[in-house]
Write a structure and sequence with these properties.
heterodimer; A: mainly beta; 4-stranded antiparallel β-sheet; 11 strands; B: 5-stranded antiparallel β-sheet
């Protein structure tokens, strides 16, 4: 998986708590995508970020979800007041260029379980 | 709405039995079609990118082809270690999104 790191790998939260998912892209990559994968469903695009800039958040729910990719440090996907329907695998992928004729490199994912 | 459909949903093959997986798409302005392999509990692993109809790419026992409406992933003489879910994704138009299919779960029986 070309060096994309995600943590934690597994996260358990109770309804109403906050979940923070972290993604460190491949060294030198400046673009990050976040996806959600529900059981028996395909990967669904959520958000596309460049360092310090959200390029496209059209796939992100309008409420409770936010993402950032600061100048220093990992990209963070934040889910506030989690509900059971948020239980899923969340994957991030990184790519080196804005012109994405290049493949994305995926991390191992964070599996979120909401009790 | 742009769509990516993969078939079959699941495929069981005997070791050495060649077959093909299909990815059909309905998008405007295809910029690239991508094939990934995903093992249980792991993230997708990149296999191929195809950009234009007629293009073909090969890697070991896998060969990907592209037409104007679909892509095939041909697997020749598969081995048990080829067992995985194979995902297809497209990028189209001026947007940044990659649209993924739901995958084909391949099981190769020794």
């Amino acid at each position: 998986n070309a060096g994309v790191m995600q943590n934690p790998r597994h996260l358990v939260r109770r309804r109403g708590q906050e979940a923070r998912l972290r993604c460190s892209p491949v060294k030198g990559h400046s673009h990050v995508y976040w996806y959600r994968q529900l059981p028996e469903e395909g990967l669904k695009f959520m958000v596309y970020l460049q360092k310090e800039n959200i390029i496209d958040e059209s796939g992100m729910p309008k409420e409770r979800f936010s993402a950032e990719f600061p100048k220093e440090g990992p990209s963070i996907l934040r889910i506030q007041q989690v509900v059971r329907g948020d239980s899923a695998a969340y994957f991030c992928a990184s790519s080196p260029y804005l012109q994405v004729y290049n493949e994305q490199f995926f991390g191992p994912g964070t599996r979120l379980t909401v009790l | 709405e742009d769509q990516v459909t993969q078939s079959p949903e699941a495929l069981r093959l005997q070791e050495g039995e060649s077959s093909s997986l299909n990815c059909s798409y309905t998008v405007s302005g295809l910029r690239g079609l991508f094939w990934y392999r995903q093992d249980p509990g792991k993230g997708p692993e990149f296999l191929f990118t195809l950009y234009s109809a007629g293009e073909e790419k090969e890697k070991e026992r896998l060969k990907a082809t592209l037409t104007k409406k679909e892509s095939f992933l041909h697997i020749t003489a598969p081995k048990p270690e080829d067992s995985a879910t194979y995902l297809c994704a497209v990028q189209a138009g001026t947007g940044n999104q990659f649209y993924f299919g739901t995958g084909t779960s391949l099981t190769v029986i020794p």
